[in-house]
Amino acid sequence: MSKVERILAVDWGSQRIGLAIAILEANLVLPLMAISSLKELKKIASVEQIDLLIIGNPLSLSGESNNKSEFNNFLNALKEKISLPIKLFDERLSSKQADVLLGKIDKSKRDSVAAMVILQSYLEKNG
């Protein structure tokens, strides 16, 4: 694989998919938006010239796999539609951390901020 410069993080939810982007050459990690379909995800990955996808892996607090069949269906469909490297990363408590970061303001950004938390954690661990 060539050098990774742009990473898209995905905080999957059955209603919305939160997205955040890391632009490594600029040392930026930013929340993007919440979307509702794989079609939108594929378009954003293309437009943003993404090199790697980080998908929040739903685990229980004890660390056991908490993969719902819905998440597995999403992941399998994603692998079929997008030809990018995909890595799963622990997303435990990312939504709670997003709530802390947002405080009582604008909860509509919760999903993209949760994706940003996942991405920042991934970069700190694999950095």
Secondary-structure-derived class: alpha/beta
Q: What is the element string, with H for helices and E for strands?
A: EEEHEHEHH
Gyration radius (Cα, Å) is 14 Å
Amount of beta strand = 25-35%
Q: In whole angstroms, how far apart are the ends? A: 17 Å
How would the blueprint of this fold be written?
Elements lengths: L5 E7 L4 E7 L4 E8 L2 H10 L4 E6 L11 H13 L4 E5 L3 H9 L7 H17 L1
Helix pairs in contact: 3-4
Model description:
The structure is a single chain. This protein is an alpha/beta fold and about 130 residues long. The chain has a single domain (about 5-125), classed as Nucleotidyltransferase, domain 5. About 40% of the residues lie in helices and about 25% in strands. The chain has four helices and five strands; from the N terminus they run E-E-E-H-E-H-E-H-H. Helix 3 packs across helix 4. The longest helix has 17 residues, at about 110-125. It is globular and about 35 Å long. The relative contact order is 0.23.
Q: What's the gist of this structure?
A:
With 127 residues, this protein is α/β, with parallel strands linked by helices. 39% of the residues lie in helices and 26% in strands. It has a single domain, classed as Nucleotidyltransferase, domain 5, CATH 3.30.420.
Could you name the key traits of this structure?
39% helix, alpha/beta, 127 residues, Nucleotidyltransferase, domain 5
